[in-house]
Amino acid sequence: MTLAEKIIRLRKEQGWSQEELAHRLEVSRQAVSKWESMASVPDLDKILKLSQLFGVSTDYLLKDDAAEETGFAADDETPDRGRTVTMEEANAYLAQAAQSARRIALGVGLCILSPVPLIFLGALSEYGKAPIPEHAAGSVGVTILLLFIACAVALFVTEGFKLHRYEYLEKEPIALTYGVAGMVEAKKEQFAPVFKSAVVTGVTLCILSLVPLLLSAMGENEFLTACCAALLFLFAAAGVFLIVLRGIVWGSYARLLEEGDYTPENKAAEKRNEPFHAFYWCAVTALYLGLSFYSNAWHRTWIVWPVAAVLFAGLQALRNARKE
């Protein structure tokens, strides 16, 4: 392990952010970021402070081949952390994640946009804006909707196969080889402003998507209201596209660094919870189909899915709270 990787590991073991470590060392966060990305090396005074803060020897920090320590005593029997990820594997995964992100985001956007032609053609026919019979408008609209969905599913399946070889990053503990953690930290630090900007822009577009529809509802032009409903999907698709595009790349860094949802503890918990997740969604599907066939109210029973999603998130939060 390099000095950069040791600083990252020891900092995370203490549960400190880069800002917290910088405050304790009386340096800037940028300085800590440069140490962890191997852009610079802390001076001797800071190395002494690091050894005191983390409870390790300076030899451990400075020697790349030093054994891992707990306190000042070296531990010669370091447990196997899991599957080893080399620099080549990490770079290949990051490149594939960036490539797949564009196509998956496009697929999500197509799913959101799929009702737009149906809404617009239906409005043209219903309000006499174009000489299109109502049944023809519906047929063409549904056909385009299904084409959009089919293209999206093809993109999801194709990219899913490409990313399947890296599935172990989500489910198994991993051990990064020399220099990988520093490289990923540097790329993550560089990408952070792009990710934050995409999330802010995406959320803003999703919120603003409601504005035209609300304004049009104040008038009596029903055709304009229908067009604004279609515009809502356009804004939402653009916002979600940005969030998914950058979010997948951001998630690839978290997987390699085992942060957030991908810590060894969370991976183990997720593996234990897999049977519950499978049972829950099978039960929800059975409930949805049962209610729909019994009532024949397919236009209303879709509400089962958002309710189930919120309930699922609540159950997850409750399980996590009980563990803590």
TrEMBL record:
SUPFAM superfamilies noted in UniProt: lambda repressor-like DNA-binding domains (SSF47413)
SMART domains: HTH_XRE
One family name in Pfam for this protein: HTH_3
Gene3D superfamilies per UniProt: lambda repressor-like DNA-binding domains
Record-annotated HTH cro/C1-type domain positions: 7-61
Transmembrane residue ranges: 104-124, 136-157, 197-217, 223-245, 278-296, 302-318
Database matches in InterPro entries: Cro/C1-type_HTH, Lambda_DNA-bd_dom_sf
Keyword terms: DNA-binding, Membrane, Transmembrane, Transmembrane helix
CDD domains in UniProt: HTH_XRE
Any GO molecular function: DNA binding
UniProt name for this protein: Helix-turn-helix transcriptional regulator
Organismal lineage: Bacteria, Bacillati, Bacillota, Clostridia, Eubacteriales
